[in-house]
Design a protein that fits this description.
The complex is a heterodimer of chains A (about 290) and B (about 300).
Chain A lengths: L27 E5 L5 E6 L3 H20 L2 H17 L1 H8 L6 H21 L3 H5 L1 E2 L6 E9 L2 E5 L7 H12 L3 E5 L6 H11 L8 E4 L3 H10 L5 E4 L5 H11 L5 E4 L13 H5 L2 E9 L3
Parallel strand pairs in A: 5-6, 5-8, 6-7, 8-9
Antiparallel strand pairs in A: 1-2, 3-4, 4-10
Helix pairs in contact in A: 2-4, 3-4, 4-6, 8-9
Chain B lengths: L13 H11 L6 H13 L1 E4 L7 H12 L13 E4 L4 H7 L6 E5 L10 H13 L4 E5 L2 H5 L3 H15 L3 E5 L8 H14 L3 E3 L11 H18 L4 E3 L7 H15 L11 E2 L2 H15 L12
Parallel strand pairs in B: 1-2, 1-8, 2-3, 3-4, 4-5, 5-6, 6-7
Helix pairs in contact in B: 1-9, 2-10, 2-11, 5-7, 7-8, 8-9, 9-10
The chains are: A alpha/beta (about 290), B alpha/beta (about 300).
Organism (chain A): Gracilimonas sediminicola
InterPro entries (chain A): Ald_DH/histidinol_DH, Ald_DH_N, Aldehyde_DH_dom
Pfam family, one (chain A): Aldedh
């Protein structure tokens, strides 16, 4: 083979319903590495893309939430396995955006561990957070957790892989489906992560990943009436935060905002994160009949 | 009136039909025009419940929806008609008293049409006597595919007679007719036999309404109008679920037959799930927020 072969650059697209479409708007934006060299073009998602994604996520919800908790755990574990398998690809992607080899390695390891952590919780959180309640009348009274529905999320800006995995895992393990906006500055690992998801038994539509600008999309994320909860972990500008909170009141979306600086730390993983996306249903059942 | 020879076939340009439809689908309808189109589509809906589990309660509930499609938006049109089985006609008639919403009923052994003609006529007469304003009948597809066009013609004419004052919609069940030529021929037979409307499908078989089939039928209506001066209505039914599709249909009608056909007297949608998508789109246009089905009634 001749030495003058031209490098084939990967085209990064979005991930919707198990497919990799371009943005409906046809727009793209440039993604640079740490030294301001052009890395790739990413899709600049639009309001319509988001709407499509929510529709897809809603469609996938009933199937995903009806799966057994055990099965969802298996699938999360499978994502971890596939990520393990694709280590090299992520090493190559994290390198140019400022991760030293050891750091990139640590980031991938932590991402795999995090997925397995939540996979483990899949069939256990119900025991821990559900309950049988003592009541004065002759009833069994028990509280169960049920997934809230479609969750929209802003992935952390500075932690394109570990942060992304840490946001997605607690949402989907409890039976929700999600639409995630990837890190604006470093969207590439998110799309590669989508390839991992796509090859690891996650049904299409459970996780949908958009790339684009937060500034542009935050209003649509927060106003969509078919989104049941919204999560972000970065410190957003005061104004954006305020408008998200106000918009969320339209359909009383839950807003989960927990700033996390260090995604390696213990505070970045917790079974309580899972309960952020669960609704408690309490059932009364008469006894003695 | 001179009847054409139904043994002759009107040639249809298949590629041309599909090409024309796909070109019409590229129209972009936005802002005020979109709101107008959405409301127009809503006013053309035949809200339908045709299930074995239909009960008076369910029909009454559907009638409420017909009268006030979405209580949160006051200036909405009502739908065109409620479509039920003959046994539920009187229930619907009662529930719709004082409105101009019609009650349509599927008679003639819907959806298969496989029972003796005398029973189908009885079925029709019963629905009319219960107060149905419109009758949706199915043609004998078996006879049609067998080439017994005269029989099909006579049956439609007989049902038309049994209808009396009520309007007759003739369901061709295009999914079972296989070719556009057959669709065209069945349309011609139905119109000459006295149909007030021709309708694509029962909604019980697949494929149901498609846009190319609708275009073929609309062109049959156009030719019939040129021949006789009589305006026949069109009703695509089944498979139309989104507001976007509905607007595409309106464009096809406008471009094939003109604005005279763009009202509920000459164009209907046989679609139930379409209603909520139209409502969601209308509310979206008003509030600027994409909607959730959580806020719209199921039936």
């Amino acid at each position: 083979m001749s030495d003058s072969r031209i490098d084939v650059k990967k085209t990064y697209k979005m991930y919707l319903g198990g497919n990799f479409p371009r943005s409906e708007s046809g727009r793209t934006y440039k993604v640079y590495d740490g030294d301001k060299n052009l890395l790739a073009n990413a899709c600049q998602g639009s309001r319509k893309d988001f709407r499509d994604a929510v529709k897809i996520a809603r469609g996938a919800f009933s199937g995903w939430s009806a799966r057994s908790a055990y099965n969802r755990g298996q699938i999360l574990y499978r994502i971890a396995e596939m990520l393990e398998d694709r280590r090299d690809q992520f090493m190559k992607e994290l390198g140019p955006i400022g991760f030293k080899t050891a750091e990139a390695e640590a980031d991938i390891n932590a991402s795999i561990d995090r997925l397995i952590y939540y996979a483990g919780w899949a069939d256990k959180y119900q025991q821990v957070f559900g309950s049988i309640n003592p009541v004065a009348s002759s009833h069994f009274n028990f509280s169960l957790l049920e997934p809230t529905g479609v969750v929209a999320a802003f992935a952390p800006e500075k932690s394109p892989l570990l942060g992304l995995a840490s946001v997605i895992a607690p949402i989907i393990v409890g039976g929700n489906t999600c639409v995630v906006l990837a890190s604006e500055e470093y969207p590439l690992p998110a799309i590669s992560f989508a390839e991992v998801l796509n090859s690891s038994d996650v049904p299409g539509g459970v996780v949908n990943i958009l790339t684009g600008f937060r500034e542009e999309l935050s209003e649509h994320f927060s106003t969509h009436m078919d989104v049941n909860a919204m999560v972000y972990t970065d410190k957003l500008p005061q104004e954006m935060k305020k408008s998200i909170d106000e918009n969320a009141s339209l359909n009383v979306k839950r807003i989960i905002n927990k700033p996390i600086d260090d995604w390696y730390s213990e505070e970045a993983q917790s079974p309580y994160f899972l309960t952020n996306f669960q609704e408690t249903k309490t059932t009364w059942h008469p006894v003695g009949f | 009136m001179k009847y054409p020879d139904f043994n002759q076939t009107v040639p249809i340009d298949h590629v041309g039909v599909e090409e024309r439809v796909s070109r019409l689908n590229k129209r972009s309808i936005k802002k005020d025009s979109k709101i107008q189109a959405l409301k127009m589509a809503l006013s053309m809906i035949d809200l339908t419940t045709l299930e074995g589990k239909d009960s008076p309660g369910k029909v009454i509930q559907l009638c409420q929806k017909a009268k006030r499609p979405h209580p949160a938006v006051p200036d909405l049109p009502t739908v065109a008609a409620i479509c039920v089985y003959p046994s539920m006609v009187s229930v619907a008639k009662n529930a719709l008293k004082g409105t101009d919403i019609n009650v349509a009923s599927v008679a003639t052994a819907f959806p298969s049409g496989q029972s003796p003609l005398s029973m189908r006529l009885e079925d029709t007469k019963f629905a009319v006597s219960e107060g149905a304003d419109e009758i949706d009948m199915v043609i004998s597809r078996g006879a049609f595919l067998n080439g017994e066009y005269q029989l099909v013609f006579d049956e439609i004419a007989a049902v038309k007679e049994a209808c009396g004052e009520a309007h007759l919609k003739v369901i061709l069940e295009t999914g079972e007719l296989h070719t556009y030529e057959n669709v065209r021929k069945a349309s011609d037979i139905a119109m000459h036999a006295g149909a007030d409307f021709i309708k694509t499908s029962t909604g019980k078989t697949s494929p149901a309404a498609t846009q190319p089939v609708t275009l073929v039928m609309l062109e049959a209506i156009r030719d019939f109008y040129y021949d006789t001066g009589k305006m026949i209505g069109m009703k695509p039914a089944g498979g139309i679920r989104t507001a976007k599709q509905a607007i595409q249909y309106l464009v096809i009608v406008k471009e094939t037959l003109g604005a005279d056909w763009l009202n509920k007297d000459y164009f209907r949608f046989g679609a139930s799930s379409l209603t909520n998508d139209l409502l969601m789109q209308i509310v979206k246009q008003q509030t600027g927020h994409y909607q959730s089905l959580d806020y719209f009634s199921n039936d």
